[in-house]
Amino acid sequence: MSAPALADSDSDTAGDRIALDVTDLTVDLRTPTGVVRAVDHVSFAARRGETLALLGESGCGKSMTAQALVGLLDPIADITDGSVVLGDTDLITASKRKRRQIAGTELAIVFQDALTALNPVYTVGTQLAEPFRIHRKMSSRDARREAIRLMEHVGIPEPESRVDSYPHQFSGGMRQRLLIAMAVALSPKVLLADEPTTALDVTVQAQIMSLLNDLRTEFDMAVILITHDLALVAEQADRVAIMYAGNVVETGRVADVFANPKHPYTKGLLESVPVNVKRGEDLKSIGGTPPDLHSVPSGCVYQARCPLAQDICVSTRPALLSVDTDRAAACHFTEEVGNA
């Protein structure tokens, strides 16, 4: 189930801008009760200078996809199919040595919990300097100078005096800035941001996303934003891939997808946002629950919760097919979604 081809009108330009091309990525997760498919033939492309959001409910496979991309699945899961092409390298078949060379220099990740992602026993300066010492063979003095420059670049006040501080001596927002600094230290082509604003207050969230956008433009990076926050996607992302039960069910430009969804799950998510609800009115929600990964239906993965489900949905899983310019959806009834 490969990703749909880009429309002819923009295929040359968009194709030249693709930094990471994911095709049929499949991840099997080992659990105490057996192996389950956590990511099922997922395809998408991340373009330089843009933010692609992976959006969906908790447990839909977003973070598992990110971990597969950066090689952090062992020992709980395995990639069993697909390709992940970064430049001229397929990360799935690349050697461990090649993956280490790429880590930070071409592909980096920002985790959601900065306090656990930073090592508590080393100063932030030591941790920020490490990429320069390992990949660029800098002296300790030069690497320390680069660490201070990075801290200043991401908005850490008084970096010269705080470079020898430890992670616990920084606020949550400052720690997140430090994680971002570490991720962009070597100007990667692709930056994965896994729920980067979790547990931060609204003001700090806005600051962190503004910083990511500025760095994306400065380094011409492709940013893959992993989130369940529709408002964050609407404000910050250029394109979106909607995930459900380990599958991508709809992709496209955010403005197009949010204005005219072509999959019932996307429409259900958008209608669950209480934008125009008046006091005393019932809130809309998607009925039911996502399928147990041990018993995902053979047909459409959304059939049990879908108001449009028919016999074909039970027997045949819809492929992710183009429905418009640079848009795709995995539904047998894309034209009927607007009236559901």
Folded structure, characterized:
By secondary structure, the protein is of the alpha/beta class. Helix content is 34%, strand content 24%. It has a single domain, classed as P-loop containing nucleotide triphosphate hydrolases (Rossmann fold), CATH 3.40.50. The strands form two sheets. An eight-stranded mixed beta sheet has the order 6-7-8-3-9-10-12-11, with helices on both faces. A hairpin with a 2-residue loop joins strand 11 and strand 12. Helix 5 packs across helix 6 and helix 8 packs parallel to helix 9. The chain is globular.
Shape: globular
In the CATH scheme, the class would be Alpha Beta
Helix content: 25-40%
Average pLDDT metric: 91
Number of helical elements: 13
Secondary structure layout:
Elements: H1 11-17, E1 18-31, E2 34-47, E3 51-55, H2 62-70, E4 77-86, E5 89-90, H3 96-102, E6 107-110, H4 114-117, H5 124-135, H6 140-153, H7 159-162, H8 172-184, E7 190-194, H9 202-219, E8 222-227, H10 230-236, E9 239-244, E10 247-253, H11 254-259, H12 264-271, H13 311-315, E11 321-324, E12 327-329
Parallel strand pairs: 3-8, 3-9, 6-7, 7-8
Antiparallel strand pairs: 1-2, 1-4, 4-5, 9-10, 10-12, 11-12
Helix pairs in contact: 5-6, 8-9
